[in-house]
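Sample intake sheet
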Amino acid sequence: MIAEFENLEQEEQNLLYIAPVLVAILVAGADGKIDKSEMREAISISGMKKIKAGKNLLQYYNEVGKDFEDKLKIGIARYPSDTKKRQEMISKELSGINAILPKLNRKFAITYYASLKDFAKRIAESSGGILGYMSIGYEESKLIDLKMIKDPSV
């Protein structure tokens, strides 16, 4: 367990650890299908974050990155195939983070939130544009701001 999570309930910790998987499923499935390039990108990002995350998130992403691909596959299977229902369920789960962020060190909470948003943006970019990169589709664009999570910096 990372030091920032010591005062959290186990359920709260679990939500913070699984949030990147939820974000990946939410954004990748925004257009009704989760394609292989989006799954590969989510797995790749989780691996890179273990190395390149901000100093205060390295330990977090080391934990998140363990079996990320398996967690992603289990997560995809767990949610309905209906896009709207899946988005509603995941958005509701992610909104639970709002009650947790104020319990964390403010700097960590702000960095964590920014990291989730970066994760969402990079997954959205993985399936559009030139050769599949650097363009965000309309459906993904409505979700990448993660509006269900309140910005802890304000």
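Comment: The first helix runs from residue 10 to 28. The radius of gyration is 15 Å.
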